[in-house]
Amino acid sequence: MNFPERFSNLPPYAFPRLRALLDHHEPGGDVVHMTIGEPKHAFPAWVTDVINENAAGFQSYPDNDGTPELRRAITGWIRRRYGVEMDPDTNVMALNGTREGLYNAAMALCPEQKNGRRPIVLCPNPFYQVYMVASISVGAEPHFVPATAATGHLPDYAGLPEDVLNRTAVAYICSPANPQGAVAPRDYWEGLIRLAERYDFRIFADECYSEIYRDAPPVGVLTVAQELGADPERITLFNSLSKRSNLAGLRSGLIAGGPDSIRRVKQLRAYSGAPLPSPLQAAAARVWADETHVEENRAFYQEKYRIADQVFAGVQGYMPPEAGFFLWLPVDDGEQAALKLWRETGVRVLPGAYLAQGKPGQNPGEGYIRVAMVAPKTELQRGLNTLRDCIYG
Fold first, then answer.
1. Radius of gyration in angstroms for the set of CA atoms belonging to the chain, rounded to a whole number
2. What keywords is this UniProt entry annotated with (predicted)?
3. What separation in angstroms does the CA of 70 have from each of 56, 62, 66, 152?
4. Is the pLDDT of residue 2 over 90?
5. Could you tell me if 154 and 124 are in contact, meaning their C-beta atoms sit under 8 angstroms apart?
């Protein structure tokens, strides 16, 4: 039996790689999980009530594009957050988590050729792995652009050769960045939009960590695009309730963009999508409309920033994250550091190289570990202190 070749060279996903690295060793102490970005703070208690009140909806097929109530809640949030008015019928669609949208947007919007050649999809490096597999799925060439300390942990797309930019059809960008916590400032967004206009490519803006930050809310691409008068079809935004509201399992995401782009994504979704059950859509509509729990959640993370800053105050190369809930800690070798931590202390972290591409010596993540600050505060404090003493002591 024959199998397709298109995915045959995919590296193992990050977490199976981590299990292969660590699981045949005994932990050196009480286990502290700091690998996966799964929020542990409480979600709003009333979410369960809303689901129960709408439980009869489990009997019916759900609205594929999102119920009118959910789409209005999404556009209401976009208006409050970004100052941008969007039509709930034509500019947005509900997603079953943003990973679905980040993948399907490439399927629906990336052309088969760019200037008569195989298209390129730009990806920051390190990156969320769906960017790469979406590129491969549409027959494009993923082009990994280092996002390192030298570039402010954001990819320097403007510095790419003209030959690459002339073939670029899509540029993925994550702000606040996973894993580094860097925030794209207004001038970065402006420069990227101008670059996209010059070379005629689309921007897929993954802003899933936008509501977890230290002080000021990160500027969003929709805000800057509106100020510049950019073509709405050039910008596609993705966000979700997973981090904002501690509801990773609810799978409520959003995609927002120009009406033609959204129409094409909707068309694909009608054939291949898996919409949220109606009771979950009802809950999501209530959650998108509420900011009180988001402010409370943000305060918890701001306290965790302060703890991390205190713990790593004397560590050379420590970069306080601007946003999100990951630490991107410099080490000599990420795999060796993760293995040492596990075997000697029971603290479990992710080698940075597992989130990036590149041969040994050229992988921009190999000198880092990613640490998720999602555990309760006491457990987090213990884990960070243990990590510091083991790796930097």
1. 21
2. Aminotransferase, Transferase
3. 17, 12, 6, 36
4. no
5. yes
Question: In whole angstroms, what separates CA 313 from the centre of its chain?
Answer: 27
Q: pLDDT confidence of 378, banded at 50, 70, 90?
A: very high
Q: What is the pLDDT of residues 181-201, one digit of tens each?
A: 999 999 999 999 999 999 999
pLDDT at 3: 85
What burial class does residue 135 get, using C-beta atoms within 10 Å of its C-beta: 0-12 exposed, 13-18 middle, 19+ buried?
buried
User: CB–CB of 92/78 below 8 Å?
Assistant: yes
Identify the band that residue 5 occupies on the pLDDT scale cut at 50, 70 and 90.
confident
Convert the pLDDT of each residue in 204-229 to its tens digit: 999 999 999 999 999 999 999 999 99
d(CA 336, CA 292): 42
| Residue with tokens 């510091």, as numbered in its chain | 388
The 3-class secondary structure across 82-131, one letter per residue, is HCCCCCCCCCEEEEECHHHHHHHHHHHHCCCCECCECCEEEEEECCCCHH
Query: What average pLDDT does this structure show over 303-326?
Result: 97
DSSP structure class, residue 323: B
Which pair of structure tokens corresponds to residue 116? 């008569």
Torsion of CA 351, 185, 87, 292, to 10 degrees: 70
pLDDT, position 164:
98
Q: Residue 375, by phi and psi: left (phi above 0), alpha (psi -120 to 50) or beta? A: beta
Q: Which residues of 262-296 are buried (b: 16+ CB within 10 A; e: fewer)?
A: bebbbeebeeebebbbbbbbbbbbbbbebeebbee
